[in-house]
Fold this sequence. Notes:
With 217 residues, this protein is an alpha+beta fold.
Amino acid sequence: xxxxxxxxxxxxxxxxxxxxxxxxxxxxxxxxxxxxxxxxxxxxxxxxxxxxxxxxxxxxxxxxxxxxxxxxxxxxxxxxxxxxxxxxxxxxxxxxxxxxxxxxxxxxxxxxxxxxxxxxxxxxxxxxxxxxxxxxxxxxxxxxxxxxxxxxxxxxxxxxxxxxxxxxxxxxxxxxxxxxxxxxxxxxxxxxxxxxxxxxxxxxxxxxxxxxxxxxx
Length: 217
């Protein structure tokens, strides 16, 4: 059962197309398996349509029609060929990649600490997006940290507790500089999370800060 969801401000920003690419990907991954949030998104889409209908009409430029017709008559440009992206990391057995991640290139699992690995996720439509996968072993915990900006996290497999609540597969978490926590994976098995990081994680430990800078978080 999914217990933790994005709040309405995030869902409204998603419906309006105002989220950055990384955050939009993580939220779409959550909505893929959450009927409650899909329904909220549909409601905000309808609300957006109503608001558009209530806007005051604006006069078109004098050449608007001719430019529209020229665009219609212009020859179609074939979309650029993109090779199938590599997915060098693998999820635990029985877990499939979310459909929202289709088109993303996924790097190999790389060591970041004993029992902890990470993988870089590349969005071809936004190469600057800072999106990572974290794979943390049972009973392991991340270094205590806060955030310089925001981090959106979707649990793909397993569960962790960070002192605020238990987050399990399907759950969504949003953190910022008001949150100081130390996620610890539950002893029953490893945990895999997809995260979009804006800014940096601010670790208390100097060693953790060094490793964080190496992997871009």
